[in-house]
């Protein structure tokens, strides 16, 4: 039995759009930028643990990372610029938006970095606007 809702349908059906927007935005900013499907990765030293980021990313300037994409249904017709506040996973900083350190998504991407043996994570919040 698979859980289905308007929110999960929205997220799943727009993940490809989000990935294409991400690639388009970063391709010109990074040397030898590449994105590849990740699948489920099991850590070689800890085979009981695995992670499934949305993709692996790499470039000559930043190294190797994971990509995690979220397409929140609650802001589907808004812009991600407005997506901060107590219930949001993002917070404003002097350098722009970042993932809140106390949000469950933060622990999700930190685990992905460790288990996939990558250096960083790009966390993308996508809307149709």
From TrEMBL:
Identification of the protein by name: YqaJ viral recombinase domain-containing protein
Domain YqaJ viral recombinase: 5-113
GO process annotations (BP): DNA repair
InterPro entries xref list: PDDEXK-like_dom_sf, Restrct_endonuc-II-like, YqaJ_viral_recombinase
């Amino acid at each position: 039995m698979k859980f289905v809702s308007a929110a999960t349908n929205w997220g799943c059906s727009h993940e490809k759009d989000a990935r294409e927007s991400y690639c388009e935005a970063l391709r010109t900013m990074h040397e030898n930028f590449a994105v590849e499907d990740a699948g489920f990765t099991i850590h070689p030293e800890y085979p009981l643990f695995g992670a499934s980021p949305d993709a692996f990313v790499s470039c000559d300037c930043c190294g190797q990372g994971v990509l995690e994409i979220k397409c929140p249904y609650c802001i589907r017709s808004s812009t991600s610029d407005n997506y901060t506040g107590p219930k949001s996973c993002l917070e404003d900083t002097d350098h722009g938006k970042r993932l809140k350190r106390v949000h469950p998504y933060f622990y999700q991407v930190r685990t992905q970095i460790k288990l996939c043996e990558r250096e960083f994570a790009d966390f993308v919040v996508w809307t149709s606007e």
